[in-house]
Amino acid sequence: MPYFYCLLTVVGLLLPELGHAEVETSTPALQQLDLTHHWAGYFSLVVMVAAYIAAMFEDVTQLRKSKPMLLAAALIWFVIVFAYQQQGNDQLAVTAFKNNLQSYIELLLFIMVSMTYLNAMEDMRIFDALKVWLVSKQLSYRQLFWLTGFMVFFISSVVNGLTAGLLMGAVVVAVGKNSPRFVSLACINIVIATNAGGSFSPLGGISTLFVWQHGMLSFLEFFKLFVPCLVNFLVPALVMHFTLPKDKPTIESEQFKLPRGAKRIIFLFGITIGLAVSFDMTLHLPAAAGMMAGLSLLQFFYYYLTKSTHQSAPKSLGLELFAGPDVHDIRATELESRRFDVFEKVGRLEWDTLLFFYGAMMGIGGLGYIGYLDAISHILYGQLTPTLANILIGLCSAFVDNGTLMFAILTMHPDIPQGQWLLLTLTLGVGGSLLAIGSAPGIGLMGQAKGQYTFSSHMKWFPVILLGYFSAIGVHFLVNAQSF
Q1: Residue 70 in contact with residue 359, Cβ under 8 Å?
Q2: Potential cystine with 362: which of 73, 145, 438, 440 (Cβ 3.0-4.6 Å)?
Q3: Is the pLDDT score of 347 beyond 70?
Q4: Residue 259, exposed/middle/buried by CB under 10 A (0-12, 13-18, 19+)?
Q5: 218-227, 254-263, 336-345, 384-393: the lowest-pLDDT one
Q6: How far is CA 126 from each of CA 44, 237, 259, 303, rounded to the nearest angstrom?
């Protein structure tokens, strides 16, 4: 995940304009305060910018990015509630905090279940099996270029972009040992395909999940972006195709067998996604409720695997220990029990990132409640056309984390039609492909294919990727004209 976040960029560009903003929101009983010129507002703005700067330099300071963000969120809401208490109506601010907290909890539960299933599939070596299968096909460099691109395009619609990108990156690194050029081009292709594939599905990334969670687009409406996202992937891929090596790599194939229960976990993950969608569309419950129901299915399945495995394991460890039982069998049984522990999978989640998003969401929510984001919204969607604003925001996602940026836009509550929400989802999703640091897959692949896929090698193809960006936007206006 890149550490150049939206608030620093937007505030740095627009801070001079904030002094002219006025926010007048009231309820019949209590009136929301305009704190944009209050000491609490200035303090919150400074704290949030400082927290983002600290998160940006995580690699230098070795300070995990969640720590400054958690502190910033706490300080911002402390001064907001304190300012409201001085006016005798702190309940209004407390309610706003709870609303932001609810949004985060729904996101947290959804991601927790999704990543738990992915960890379970990783333990079952499902991704390793897919890598071995691809490598064993003895395909040419050009065939592998297209196969990995199309596969990651569709896989990233249901699997987080970093996991999907690293999976296909492992394939191209394995087959391209003798062709650094192939590895470089294939990695660029994977980054573009991953970001494009994650943009036409609400399950494909944080930004699309935010839009779905906030009810701006229904589950099925996201798929209107399929053709524009496909164009975004195909345009640069077609140009790169003619520069790929034409020969076939020599690779040693290997045999691989999935452990018991692996295929059924894939099936349960599909059922879980179906539950999340059906809960949202038919019962109008949060998608997280369906995901939690799916987590219970995984827990029961692990229980079944544990019991059925133990039936064939040594049943008593008393006298048998003195009789010299096979210690390797006992240790294997303990390892199996650990492998079937769902809480061990939950413990392996990227909690630093999840807690960072708590700080980012609550902090941005606090700035929105103060009135700053309304002021920025008036500039972006008032002085500029929505189309131009969304295109520029998408370009910013080449430097800015798109999940945080999307939440900031949602907090602004811009009054735009469905077509513009689709455009914003598209540009924020595929805009991260413009630079190697613009998305988690790009950063991950730079580490995985170190020395072969670099920032500069990606930058050489910037004009072609930018062509794909604007081609996708043009196709969106063409095929989704009825949404505007």
Answers
A1: yes
A2: 73
A3: yes
A4: middle
A5: 336-345
A6: 46, 27, 9, 20
Q: What's this model's pTM, rounded to 2 decimal places?
A: 0.74
The distance in angstroms from the start CA to the end CA of the chain is 32
What is the Cα–Cα distance from 386 to 414, expressed in whole angstroms?
Answer: 9
Quickly tell me which residue has 């045999």 as its tokens.
255
Give the CA dihedral 226, 227, 232, 236, nearest 10 degrees: 130
Q: What is the chain's length?
A: 484
At 470, phi and psi to the nearest 5? Answer: -75, -30
CB neighbourhood size of 43 (10 A): 17
Q: What is the DSSP string of 388-432?
A: HHHHHHHHHTTTS-HHHHHHHHHHH-----HHHHHHHHHHHHHGG
- Taking each helix axis from N to C end, the angle separating 66-86 and 39-56, rounded to the nearest 10 degrees, works out to 180
User: And the tokens for 39?
Assistant: 């000491």
CA neighbor of 242 nearest in space, from 139, 138, 142: 142
Q: What is the C-alpha separation between 309 and 304, in angstroms, rounded?
A: 8
**What CA–CA distance (Å, rounded) separates 413 from 233?**
30
pLDDT score of 310: 60
Q: What phi-psi label fits residue 285: left (phi over 0), alpha (psi between -120 and 50 degrees) or beta?
A: beta
Encoded tokens for 322: 């003195």
Residue 251 bridge partners (DSSP) = none
CA pair distance 213, 103, nearest whole angstrom: 8
304-308 long-range Cβ contacts below 8 angstroms, 24+ apart: 305/260, 305/261, 305/340, 306/336, 306/337, 306/340
* 3-state class (DSSP) for residue 87: coil
Nearest to 367 by CA among 13, 96, 66: 96
Could you give the CA distance from residue 333 to residue 339 in angstroms, rounded to a whole number? 10
108 close to 150: Cβ distance less than 8 angstroms: no
Specify burial of residue 462 (Cβ count, 10 A radius: 0-12, 13-18, 19+): middle
Q: What is the pLDDT of residue 323?
A: 46
* Residue 127 CB neighbour total at 10 angstroms: 19
* pLDDT tens per residue, range 57-80: 877 788 888 899 899 999 999 999
Q: How far apart are CA 146 and CA 466, in angstroms?
A: 20
pLDDT category of residue 467 using cuts at 50, 70 and 90 = very high
Q: What is the mean pLDDT of residues 140-155?
A: 92
d(Cα 371, Cα 17) in Å, to the nearest integer? 13
Dihedrals phi, psi of 138, to nearest 5 degrees:
55, 50
Hey, is 160 helix, strand or coil? coil
Cβ atoms 196, 229 nearer than 8 A:
yes
User: How distant, in Å, are the alpha carbons of 22, 332, 422 from that of 378?
Assistant: 10, 62, 20
